[in-house]
């Protein structure tokens, strides 16, 4: 058991338990060190970094994503770029030492297929940072599964309903890895999600099913975006209020407006609004940092070949992105829980109060 703790210059304390992934963040502290109960708006450095070490995807280039019916937002079936070099990754990690709790390894492809995978995991742990990753399982080897068990806090397997998905779950779970299932929740998959939760047919070996809201980015189409007036939406979110189901599920922050709107029995202490640009950031294989990997406009990009992470974090691009969370939906009583939802893809916000032109108002 190892507990990491950071006192942030913005006036709060955070801690991270490296063995089970528990993350705690206090409210703003007063002059006597007492918690005021006011949530901090942002950290002085990201606590979580999503690092896209993969520039190309074997799974996508071989047509496997298309066969599985997935719509990759990174466009892995047609875009082929170099992976992040070990040298560049090392430079990132050195800037993060003592500031970042964990990194999520990803990008355009399975991180376990990176040519320096073992070195990346080892280097991360040596800096007292916990690596996590998501994989399709397509190219997962026993050797790499051993490395994941030795270094990673958790791993997720994408829900592709393939034999290699099942094999990857077994390989990881049998080694004691906390293994989650990443399920993209969209208009095309919500029926299956409801059925899986209602009938308790979660694949064996899975700790939690984590629902990721479909976004119309990359190959992602508008047709698969869930609509707030779809009767299946409140049905799905109501399931998350049942304790036996809640203990087996999780969701990304893109789902939070839906939680706030349709699952009011879920305690606000158990979820957080979008942390992009406030407590987390994405760095691509080209060393471009942005608040969120789903932003492909370039509006908030920071070139880490020219600037440091700290400089970019407090720079104009990130400040511009954070303006949305600071000002959106000022008259809404639930504002503090979702901060206006997603400024990148307003179409996905499952809230009756969020205006459709929210993206323009954030820039």
TrEMBL record:
Gene3D superfamilies: Aldolase class I. Signal peptide: none annotated. It comes from the Bacteria. This is Radical SAM protein. It comes from Alkalibacter rhizosphaerae. The lineage of its organism: Bacteria, Bacillati, Bacillota, Clostridia, Eubacteriales.
């Amino acid at each position: 058991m190892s507990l990491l703790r950071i006192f942030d210059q913005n006036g709060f304390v955070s801690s991270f338990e490296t063995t089970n992934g528990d993350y705690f963040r206090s409210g703003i502290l007063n002059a006597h060190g007492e918690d005021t109960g006011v949530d901090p708006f942002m950290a002085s450095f990201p606590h979580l970094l999503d690092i896209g070490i993969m520039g190309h995807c074997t799974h996508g280039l071989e047509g496997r994503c298309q066969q599985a019916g997935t719509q990759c937002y990174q466009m892995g079936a047609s875009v082929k770029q170099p992976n992040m070099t070990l040298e560049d990754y090392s430079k990132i990690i050195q800037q993060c030492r003592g500031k970042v709790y964990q990194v999520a390894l990803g990008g355009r492809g399975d991180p376990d297929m990176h040519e320096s995978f073992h070195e990346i995991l080892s280097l991360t742990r040596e800096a007292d940072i916990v690596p996590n990753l998501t994989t399709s399982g397509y190219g997962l080897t026993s050797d790499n599964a051993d490395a994941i068990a030795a270094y990673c806090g958790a791993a997720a397997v994408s829900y592709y309903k393939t034999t290699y998905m099942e094999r990857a779950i077994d390989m990881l779970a049998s080694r004691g890895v906390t293994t989650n299932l990443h399920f993209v929740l969209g208009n095309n998959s919500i029926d299956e999600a409801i059925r899986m939760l209602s009938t308790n047919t979660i694949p064996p070996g899975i700790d939690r099913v984590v629902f990721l809201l479909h976004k119309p980015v990359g190959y992602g189409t508008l047709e698969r975006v869930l609509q707030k007036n779809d009767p299946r939406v409140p049905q799905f979110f109501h399931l998350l209020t049942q304790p036996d189901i809640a203990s087996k599920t999780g969701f990304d922050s893109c789902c939070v407006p839906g939680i706030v709107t349709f699952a009011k029995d879920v305690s606000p202490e158990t979820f957080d609004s979008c942390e992009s640009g406030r407590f987390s950031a994405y760095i691509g294989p080209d060393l471009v940092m942005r608040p969120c990997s789903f932003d492909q406009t370039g509006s908030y990009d920071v070139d880490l070949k020219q600037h440091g992470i700290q400089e970019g974090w407090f720079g104009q691009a990130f400040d511009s992105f954070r303006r949305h969370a600071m000002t959106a939906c000022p008259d809404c009583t639930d504002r503090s829980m979702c901060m206006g939802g997603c400024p990148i893809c307003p179409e996905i916000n499952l809230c009756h109060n969020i205006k459709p032109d929210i993206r323009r108002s954030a820039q």
